[in-house]
Amino acid sequence: MAKVSPNILVVDDDVVILKFIEFTLKGLGYQTTLAKNGKEAIDQAKSQHFDLIISDLYMPLMDGNELVRRLRQTPEYQHTPFIFLSGNNEEDTWIKNLNDGADDFITKPIKQKIFISKIKSHLKKAYLRKDILDCARKDDISFEKGNLIYCANRIKPFPLPRKHLKTNITAVYSDSDFFMALQDTNTWGIIIDDKANWAISILDKITEIVSNHIPINILVSDADDMDKLENLMQSKISGFLFKNLNPKLIIHQINSNVQREHDLKSKYLSALNSAAKRSPIRFENEFQDTIQDYNIQILHQPYDKLPGGDYYEIIDVDQNRKILILGDVMGKKWDAWFFVPAYIAYIRSTINFFVNRQELDFVESPGKFLDIINEYLFKDIQLTEVFTTLSIISLCTSSNKISIASAGALRPFLYDGIDKTISQLNIVGTLLGVVKEIKYRSLVHEFNKGDKLFFYTDGYTEAVNDRTGEMIGDEAMFYILDNNKEKEIIEPKDVELELTKIYNVSKFDDDRTLLLIQRN
């Protein structure tokens, strides 16, 4: 079957720009749908599926920031590439756009070559994400953890026999319930009752989203209604189930479909994990190191146990010096992990080149290293499509100094062993690759006995308290450190365990890494 061309939603209140973009995209063979404001875009997104969204920032009725926030709250558009168009070149505006959920931005006036390059790049990454994650949605693919989604008629649902099914089945009665169920668990298949008009009306959207990775079967009331069957066969469905069959035959057919999907996904997931294990970029989940009376501990937990965007590196300079790096490529699982080796390669080669050269003293000025690496990344069109945070920590035991530079990372906490106080260090900086020429600041700190440095990625702060429904934030990290500050050595695993208990966190929805530096 020929691959359907990408469907792109373009949102702008300027008709001239809409037509220019439509002309450009159609020249690439892409389908386009146009909207003049955010409200029109929301309506379009409800009725059909889009592979990428391009939106102006400033529009009447609903601006681009509200549009991206609302779309990101919709399960089927949580990971769809979203690109802003704007004549605003201010760095704070760009960062706000990214924080609201955008993936990239293109400045006006539009330069066609750059525009086309960015669109192709984001589509390519989106298809990579879709192909991999749809086939390996969960690392635990047991029948008990999997799920069948049954799109039913709310008033009179057909009673599917559940007793002898190999897996769980979830009945849904609206499009919002369906897309939520699709995100929650590994899905073995979708069954749609032909009397569930709400599902039949968006059948094309459903098939586009799940592509060929999740089988869709239509539960048919009248096997002799050939006009209806032929119309349904125009969609990319896998087959039919007939209500007039013996319930045992319906069960057998459903179980056979589930078993086939289980076998295919088991083989695919095994191949992916095998590839990851052979990668030169492998991080231990727990790492511990010492240098003189300094203790270094790291807890690294990828999202859903699959490689993700968090990365760290420990570089031994000599018997008195170490360089530690901690970063986070935006994204989850494989879509972020694809870019980690490239970032690590840049960082390793740059550090190795400058570490013993007089023009760059890592102990005093790790910020200069960030200046250099940022300039390299900005020039690399492949990597500047994805953004990363990075903290550089230089540790020198001969001078008992620790110096820190940050590119968009969360501010670490410092426990002062003499004053018995905790403070959040004021070390911030722009994400790598966003602005070409920028100067990163270095913070140099005398590190005394009893001092503790507490670094962490946003997989912790963005975890949700099950009781309140709110993210736990930096305050939770401060509280846990304050609770344990008198311990000679704080164990990262104890920090995470205490965090989950006190703040009612049942799961983490992103990669997470803790880095603790303590002097005894």
From TrEMBL:
CDD domains named among the record's database cross-references: REC_OmpR (cd17574)
Domain Response regulatory: 7-123
Positions of post-translational 4-aspartylphosphate modification: D56
Top-level taxon of the source organism: Bacteria
SUPFAM superfamilies: CheY-like (SSF52172), PP2C-like (SSF81606)
Keywords noted in UniProt: Phosphoprotein
InterPro entries for this protein: Bact_response_regulator (IPR050595), CheY-like_superfamily (IPR011006), PPM-type-like_dom_sf (IPR036457), PPM-type_phosphatase-like_dom (IPR001932), Sig_transdc_resp-reg_receiver (IPR001789)
GO BP term, example: phosphorelay signal transduction system
PANTHER family linked to this entry: RESPONSE REGULATORY DOMAIN-CONTAINING PROTEIN (PTHR44591:SF3), STRESS RESPONSE REGULATOR PROTEIN 1 (PTHR44591)
Protein name as it appears in the record: Response regulator
